[in-house]
């Protein structure tokens, strides 16, 4: 089990907006990072809602947080956004790092 | 632009020692932490541990007793040893750069990843 909880699967119609969430008691007052992983590839850092988006990441990706829930929002999802998405932050100890279980995004 | 290049043995027998190295190219080694992460077949990402340039390391409690992460600042390399391995350690192993705010107050994520190394443990 993980300190961070994600929905296993989410779907979105092409061009629509989708929000992928990550819940955990440790998320209060911490930034949450998000990664995109396509089959057979290494994860790619997408955003942490704080620092600038990496070059190559479209501005349709944005991160936010409220209380113990962090969100990755894709505004106008594209076919190439279909992937697994993982959240990542510190765990409840404040020392160790932890990943959420991942969300498989399907673009219909 | 920083790049991480990984290498190490890909096929091990149970009870042997997994040994992987991650080379950092193109940017400063200090000022960051360097993490190891693994992904078992069909599963999610699992953080193994991290280390900074001065050798200060943190480990996943569930793997701490079997893991050793070390750093060679002169070569700009970070290494992972895991021993003894079992079939449950079969996974793709990644190294990544972890970023923190000053004094480590905030964790900003892993912004650069290595290509991954597939490790299979089988008798």
Molecular structure report:
The complex is a heterodimer of chains A (about 110) and B (about 120). Chain A is an all-beta fold. Helix content of chain A is about 0%, strand content about 45%. Chain A has strands at about 10, 20-25, 35, 45, 60-65, 70-75, 85-90, 95-100, 105. In chain A, strands 1, 3, 4, 7, 8 and 9 form a 6-stranded mixed sheet that branches. In chain A, strands 2-6-5 form a 3-stranded antiparallel sheet, with no helix packed on it. In chain A, strand 3 (about 35) and strand 4 (about 45) form a beta hairpin. The N and C termini of chain A lie far apart (about 30 Å). Chain B has strands spanning about 5-10, 10, 20-25, 35-40, 45-50, 55-60, 65-70, 75-80, 90-100, 105-115, 115-120. Chain B is built from no helices and 11 strands. With about 120 residues, chain B is mostly beta strands. In chain B, strands 2, 4, 5, 6, 9, 10 and 11 form a 7-stranded mixed sheet that branches. The relative contact order of chain B is 0.31.
The N- to C-terminal Cα distance of chain B equals 40 Å
By DSSP (H or I, 4+ residues per run), the number of helices of chain B equals 0
Give the SSE order of chain A as H and E letters. EEEEEEEEE
Q: From the helix content, strand content and strand pairing of chain B, which structural class follows?
A: mainly beta
| % residues in beta strands of chain B | over 45%
Topology of helices and strands:
The complex is a heterodimer of chains A (108) and B (123).
Chain A: E1 9-12, E2 18-23, E3 33-37, E4 44-47, E5 61-66, E6 69-74, E7 83-90, E8 97-99, E9 103-107
Parallel strand pairs in A: 1-9
Antiparallel strand pairs in A: 2-6, 3-4, 3-7, 5-6, 7-8, 7-9
Chain B: E1 3-8, E2 11-12, E3 18-25, E4 33-39, E5 45-52, E6 57-59, E7 67-72, E8 77-82, E9 91-100, E10 107-113, E11 117-121
Parallel strand pairs in B: 2-11
Antiparallel strand pairs in B: 1-3, 3-8, 4-5, 4-9, 5-6, 7-8, 9-10, 9-11
